[in-house]
Specification:
Length: 473
Amino acid sequence: MNREWYQKANIVDMRKALDGGTVSVKQLVQWAKEIIEEKNKSINAFIEVWDVNEDEIAQAQQLIDQKKSFILTGIPYAIKDNISYKGKHITASSKILATYIASYDATVVVKIKKQHALCIGRLNCDEFAMGSGTENSIFGPTKNPADTTRVAGGSSGGSAAAVAIGAVPFALGSDTGGSIRQPASYCGVVGLKPAYGTVSRYGLIALGSSLDVIGPCTKTVEDAFIVMEVISGEDSFDMTTKNARAKKSAVMGKKLLEPKNIKELVSPEVWDQYSATKEKLKKEGYYIDEIDISLFTHGLAMYYIIQPAEASSNLARMDGMRFGVRKEGEGGLWSDYLESRKVGLGHEVKKRIVLGTYVLSAGHYDAYYGKADALRSSFIDEVNLLTESYDALICPTTCDVAFKIGLTRNLIEVYNEDKLTVQANLLGSAAISVPMGSINNLPVGIQIMTSPNRADSNTILKTIAEVVEKIRA
Ligand code: GLN
């Protein structure tokens, strides 16, 4: 076992090596650090690397030596900079939280700590997770490991890139409209957005509370579900985890649904890759139907009303009064708020707060937020009805390969990045992005999504995603 092995190894490989005594926890941490040292300067995935305490390493090793290891014992990992880790800085890549230190562990961190995995640092993201390229970060963009002139995607760009360079076998990200799946697609790794309410958000800096979920980036589908299994479960600190809807179990078949007219949305090269993957799926016995789904036509418009509305309310607490950066104005408390937010928040964040407050304001609520919310419910019903006779929905994760850093695009072009991913968040369903190939060396992923009503959605996703993994190999 050596560093090259570590860089390629997944959780399952590491588990075997640790339990078999062919590698030590200390070695894994050492290799992780060396890879970061060598690669991070050009990639900018890690914004802080932590010294792993000797006691933590010793405890993990002891569990392994006593044959009492859990699935993640001794495995290095890293977290997006919007997930709380007690005693460590957490900024959501925003200036306004530059001085803030987490005072408690997020529930996902507690669960992973119980298994004695070792967190080695925090990862770059778009400010407050608003963006698709990790370019809206005070730490500068994360670069794509396949081509450093391009973005790694966003907002969990650091999480996907950290796994892609082999620094860690898994990293946690958050997904409000595609932020795990889109960077996973761009970096050639697996990205899992769990169903809403299956993973606690306690300790996650909230963006859109009816959409947010924490999930993993990994090298394999199997690993994604290993992490999912560890981090999921009911949590009294997040009431949405108690709210599991009545779910139906159905017999899993091989019937897939594809939203109609998506060919026009994606680049011809991505379409070719996707078509080739579909052909292979058909050879594996899958049947694919094309159907018009309103959520795919109107999803983005609804998302960019609902999400800023929720963001504006969640971000009201970022006022420089209670935590983070505070700048005093010249006219009392009101000017302190204005100054603190003026210097502390970036352009995209300000824009969404303004947009969000507008669509929620008394005079515009019915025309915007009310309408989007009502449509969301009716579209959910439509998809639920449709998916009753199908096992999952498939489409490319992204419309194209990773875009160039610094590309000047208008707002609509940027928001268009999320065209095929926001639906899973609006629905609350589980979705996964699995690498399906690459175009001129730039990776692209296929997305598999289930109905939020199915109790067996994880089994369905895992089964189909593993078929994609197999046919790609
Ligand atoms: N790109 C989307 C946005 O900017 C998704 C963000 C996310 O999932 N956190 O809102």
